[in-house]
Specification:
By secondary structure, the protein is an alpha/beta fold. It has a single domain, classed as Rossmann fold. The protein contains 9 helices and 7 strands, in the order βαβαβαβαβααβαααβ. It has helices at 17-28, 40-52, 67-81, 104-132, 143-147, 153-173, 191-194, 199-210, 221-232; strands at 8-12, 32-37, 56-61, 86-89, 135-140, 178-185, 243-246. Strands 3-2-1-4-5-6-7 form a 7-stranded parallel sheet, sandwiched between helices. Strand 4, helix 4 (104-132) and strand 5 (135-140) form a beta-alpha-beta unit. Helix 1 packs parallel to helix 2, helix 3 (67-81) packs parallel to helix 4 (104-132) and helix 4 packs parallel to helix 6 (153-173). The protein is globular. The model has no long low-confidence stretch (mean pLDDT 95).
Length: 252
């Protein structure tokens, strides 16, 4: 039997990169997957690929900073599928700038998406999980949360907040049979990491980052997704409150 047969998984940031890979792997493992992303057309495209491959997927356009929308979409998913067993929070944004030049709006936006989005989705799925006394959540942090980051302190702080939330939630809800973990990726070769860089800028940035990574390359989205799916699955049944670093051995 497939490890996620009969399970329903909700994945944010599912229009591309790590979120899309996570949704596809979960579907291939038997889960019914609900994809959510601010890019509704993108998440719909991923859902169509999953369904075409024989999986089961639906999608929603969702801004994780909107509490009402998060609650409505998750409630709709629970009504449609009867439950949400797994939550993978892959939605996130990046920001740069020296601390003295950061505006309040810059900091607030990073926190609203990267931390607040995790808070809202967790808060929405928890009542059902607590009632069933089972459920698994994996949140997206970052290697920067552990090491800090020059010219991206607000990003690192938003991802550090995710770690505090993850560990606290694991302790608070463990008695309900709910597991909560996080992944902390290093540089992963996605559109998110490339941002608006030109090809030349990308190649220079890539060479600079790779020089500090023992494995000598950037990571691939699927490598992070595989870890997320493992943490959501039965093989990780005694793992909770942890942050798994996925950075090719990079230590700062």
């Amino acid at each position: 039997m497939l490890p996620f047969a009969g399970k329903v998984a909700f994945v944010t940031g599912a229009a591309g990169g790590i979120g899309a890979e996570t949704a596809s792997l979960l579907a291939a493992a038997g889960a019914t997957v609900v994809l959510a992303d601010r890019d509704g057309a993108g998440s719909e495209s991923v859902a169509e690929r999953i369904n075409h491959a024989g999986g089961k997927a639906t999608s929603f356009a969702l801004d994780v900073t909107d509490t009402v929308s998060v609650n409505d979409v998750i409630a709709h998913a629970e009504r449609s599928h009867g439950r949400i067993d797994c939550l993978a929070n892959a939605a996130g944004i990046y920001g740069t700038g020296p601390v003295e030049e950061l505006e309040d709006a810059d900091i607030d936006r990073l926190m609203a998406v990267n931390f607040g989005g995790v808070v809202r989705t967790c808060r929405a799925v928890l009542p059902g999980m607590m009632q069933r006394r089972s459920g698994v959540i994996v949140n997206m942090s970052s290697l920067h949360a552990l090491n800090g980051q020059v010219n991206a302190a607000h990003y690192a702080a938003s991802k550090a907040a995710v770690l505090g939330w993850t560990r606290s939630l694991a302790r608070e809800k463990g008695s309900y049979g709910i597991r909560v973990n996080a992944v902390a990726p290093g540089p992963i070769d996605t559109a998110f990491w490339r941002g608006s860089m030109s090809e030349d800028e990308y190649q220079r940035a890539k060479a600079g980052r790779v020089s500090s990574i023992p494995l000598g390359r950037l990571g691939h989205p699927r490598e992070v997704a595989e870890t997320i799916v493992f943490l959501l699955g039965p093989g990780a049944s005694y793992i909770t409150g942890q942050a798994v670093s996925i950075g090719g051995g990079e230590i700062m």
